[in-house]
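Lab notebook page, bench 4
Experiment: in silico fold of construct C2
Operator: M.H.
Input chain length: 174 residues
Purpose: comparison with the prior construct
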Amino acid sequence: MDLDAVKRSLELELELDPDPSSSSSSSSPAAELPPSFYDAFVLHGLRIDAAEPRRVLCSLSVPPRLAVSPQCKSGFFLQNSESYLHSGVIATLADVVGSAVFYSSGFPTSGVSLEISISYLDAAFINEEIEIEAKLLRVGKVVGVTSIEFRKKKTGKIIAQARHSKYLAVSSKL
């Protein structure tokens, strides 16, 4: 298990190098690209509570920036006590945390998403603490499958359940 790889995949740097002409110590061209705004926007505040082979447990207090509310009569969206975690954020977290579980199991890469299916069962509201538990269900020759469960930390009530299938690309010899 490579705990550092799990942390690197979930804890993004929010600051960019102010000097674009400075040389990067990484040999990967992707390492020179700025981090994805959307990943940093969603993952900021995500905490890794446990990482062990075939399992990653994270927690997040739902911030207002990731919440939506029922539409009011004027057509504008307001953030209030009824605001809840956006379903797109749950999908993003399922993708990212579901990918991190491959690193916790010793794989050098998390592969490419083939399919993500999500059942939304309840809502998590602003400032509510949630747990995200990803488990590696199976790894075949080229496909791996993870299960991701979102729960309210206080009650254990399930918010959403996801299944994530990944193609574990074999590196080319070219």
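Observations: The longest strand covers residues 129-139. The chain has one domain: 3-11+33-167.
Next step: discuss at group meeting.
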